[in-house]
Design goal:
The complex is a heterodimer of chains A (about 110) and B (about 120). Chain A has about 110 residues and is mostly beta strands. Chain A is about 0% helix and about 55% strand. Chain A is globular and about 40 Å long. Chain B is mainly β and about 120 residues long. Classes of the chains: A mainly beta (about 110), B mainly beta (about 120). Chains A and B meet through strand 4, strand 5, strand 9 and strand 10 of A and strand 4, strand 5 and strand 10 of B.
């Protein structure tokens, strides 16, 4: 199977705290992307990290990539109630299709 | 900011009927994709399309499925004879290129319910 896993499956934190989500994958990748999905809605692209990059920042988001361990993490700093959503990692394989992780459901309590 | 748009947002169809899901990708994008998400499960790749041809398809994309770019703007997914297990959220995506720094941009999806 080309699928990987995300953990935790669910995360509940207080507003202002940081949220960390982890992703593991199994194949070689061109890049790894993180998406957010609000309930019943589409996938919103958050950030992309190339396979030759180790860390990337975008606003309150920080992504790391360790290709030797085939893992990535997404850190959301100073979380807000509006960050409540499901977060998915997706890695682009050698045929340029995205393979999605199982997702982390994040709840940020006001 | 340009968006991928999908219609309809919700489609209810009797089992065995044909259904066409429509997508308008971002206008200067060249690569198009369909994914699906069965309720509570992972997002799964169905098919990619470039230069009026299928580039790759998954095992899910059997003979009941087809894709078409009938004109310069629309990209459609047709399911010929729907089954109960086709009930899912279907997402269209597009990208400008297939390079390692090119994200795929997704539409809001069509929720397909087969009765």
């Amino acid at each position: 199977s080309q699928q990987g896993e995300e953990d935790p499956q669910a995360l509940s934190i207080q507003e202002g705290e940081n949220a960390t989500m982890n992703c593991s994958y199994k194949t070689s990748i061109n890049n790894l992307q993180w998406y957010r999905q609000n309930s019943g809605r589409g996938l919103v692209h958050l950030i992309l990290i190339r396979s030759n990059e180790r860390e990337k920042h975008s606003g309150r988001l920080r992504v790391t990539l360790d290709t030797s361990k085939k893992s990535s993490s997404l850190l959301i700093t100073a979380s807000r109630a509006a960050d409540t959503a499901s977060y998915f990692c997706a890695w682009m394989d050698s045929s340029y299709k995205l393979i999605f992780g199982s997702g982390t459901r994040l709840l940020v309590r006001p | 900011e340009p968006e991928v748009t999908q219609t309809p947002s919700h489609q209810v169809t009797q089992m065995g009927q044909e259904v066409i899901l429509r997508c308008v990708p971002i206008s200067n994008h060249l690569y198009f994709y369909w994914y699906r998400q069965i309720l509570g499960q992972k997002v799964e790749f169905l098919v990619s399309f470039y230069n009026n041809e299928i580039s790759e398809k998954s095992e899910i994309f059997d003979d009941q499925f087809s894709v078409e770019r009938p004109d310069g703007s629309n990209f459609t997914l047709k399911i010929r004879s729907t089954k109960l297990e086709d009930s899912a959220m279907y997402f269209c995506a597009s990208s400008a290129d297939r390079g390692s720094d090119q994200p795929q941009h997704f539409g809001d999806g069509t929720r397909l319910s087969i009765l």
